[in-house]
């Protein structure tokens, strides 16, 4: 019987592959079965990671967007500082 891994271990292995393109160390984890219950957890974790990336992109682009909008309007709009 192949070794069993927790959804957390499988999530980490999948995210590591997506982020860096590296396979998990150890042949056992790389060839582990991915049961349906664990697949649901992995997909949920991927969705959470996707949301975190979207928030980061939003936070990165927000100040630039405010500056661009203010320049388009001829600096006639007061922009409150983000705190």
Structural commentary:
With 83 residues, this protein is mostly helical. The protein has one domain. The chain is built from three helices and no strands. Helix 1 packs across helix 3. The protein is elongated. The mean pLDDT is 75.
Walk me through the topology:
Elements (H helix, E strand, L loop, with lengths): L6 H14 L6 H4 L5 H37 L11
Q: What's the β-strand tally? A: 0
Question: What's the domain count?
Answer: 1
Instruction: Compute the CA-based radius of gyration.
Output: 21 Å
Element-by-element helix/strand order:
HHH
Residues in helices, as a percent range: 55-70%
Distance between the termini: 55 Å
Residue windows where pLDDT falls under 50 for at least 5 positions: none
What keywords describe this structure?
83 residues, mainly alpha
Summarize the structure.
With 83 residues, the chain is mainly α. The chain has three helices and no strands. The chain has one domain.
């Amino acid at each position: 019987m192949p070794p069993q891994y927790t959804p957390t271990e499988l999530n980490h292995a999948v995210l590591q592959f997506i982020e860096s393109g590296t396979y998990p160390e150890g042949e056992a984890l790389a060839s582990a079965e991915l049961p349906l219950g664990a697949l649901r957890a992995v997909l949920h974790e991927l969705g959470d990671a996707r949301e975190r990336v979207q928030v980061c992109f939003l936070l990165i682009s927000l100040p630039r967007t405010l500056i661009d909008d203010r320049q388009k309007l001829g600096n006639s709009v007061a922009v409150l500082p983000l705190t």
